[in-house]
Amino acid sequence: MNPSAVVSRFLPVVVGLTLLAAACQTTRPPQSSDRTVSALQERVDSLRAATDSLSRAAYLRKPFLHSTLWAQTAVEYAGTARQAYGLAEIMMRRGLTDSTWTASIEQAEAGAESYRTKPPAVVLDVDETVLDNSPYQARLIRDDESYEPESWKAWVREARADPVPGARAFTHAAVQNGVQVIYLTNRDADVEAATRTNLEALGFPVDDAPDAVLTQAERPGWEPKTTRRQWVADRYRILLLIGDNFGDFAAEVDTTVAARRQRSQAFREYWGARWIVLPNAQYGSWEGALHDFSYGLPPLRLLEAKHEHLHPKRPE
Ligand SMILES: [Mg+2]
Questions:
Q1: pTM value surpassing 0.90
Q2: Cβ neighbours for 227, distance < 8 A, ≥ 6 positions apart
Q3: From CA 16, how far away is CA 84, in angstroms rounded?
Q4: At residue 252, what are phi and psi to the nearest 5 degrees?
Q5: Per residue in 174-191, pLDDT tens?
Q6: Which of 11, 23, 107, 298 has most Cβ atoms within 10 angstroms of its Cβ?
Q7: DSSP assignment letter at 271
Q8: What DSSP assignment string belongs to 148-212?
Q9: Distance in Å, CA 245 to ligand 1 centroid
Q10: Ligand 1 centroid distance, CA of 53 (Å)
């Protein structure tokens, strides 16, 4: 039972007992009435403290509440996503006019001669980049549950995710400019059909030439995103990488907060130019880094690990 339910179930009982005790005490001589009121006040205060404590516990057990509400209700979220895709279109046009331009670290390392004559492509992640899965997070909050592969795949198979604001218009601009659109996702191969259904129902271009949707483990060795990015890099000049997670752009990002920051700095000229990032405060490798990717820890331990990363910067 969640803490809110505990509060609702037991609060009437405790209040009832408190009132009963008060009623019994009113039968005592009048001189004890001050003590009775005082005792009653103490009970009410302690009850209020217990309720506050349980409410706080209930709140802390729902770490997705604000981030999910932000994605679902804030014009600031939708505006940020549109801003990202607006920038993506500007940079795509810039990349098209410069045959040495690439968003791929692998292509950059191999040199421009290895890719400059290849047809252009943009590579987009799927979850929280083109498809909005915040309803799944909303269900977890409402049902007091946490992420499980089974419930996640059940949601994916519904194929009812809405588009991330700005994503559809961007992909159509890419097609109009002769740019291949590739969706590179860590969704498993067994939900690729549902993913394609969802994308096509929303009007996203899915042009298999030869493969527009690259899912995890769809082919041997296709577990990490890096091998799939290499598959794209062998066939296209990658104008842009678009995603919500560091892993959509670079390898070896499941490491400490400090190491991720250092690695990000090494690619600072890519962000906002060749790499276009969408906001995702709900989940991602940034969150895993807060607890060394130990997702199986008890909730309280996870909470403690996260608190250790807070920087209150109190005055000396
Ligand atoms: Mg994603």
A1: no
A2: 221
A3: 56
A4: 55, 50
A5: 999 999 999 999 999 999
A6: 107
A7: B
A8: -HHHHHHHHHHT-PEEPTTHHHHHHHHHHTTPEEEEEEEEEGGGHHHHHHHHHHTT-----SS-S
A9: 6
A10: 35
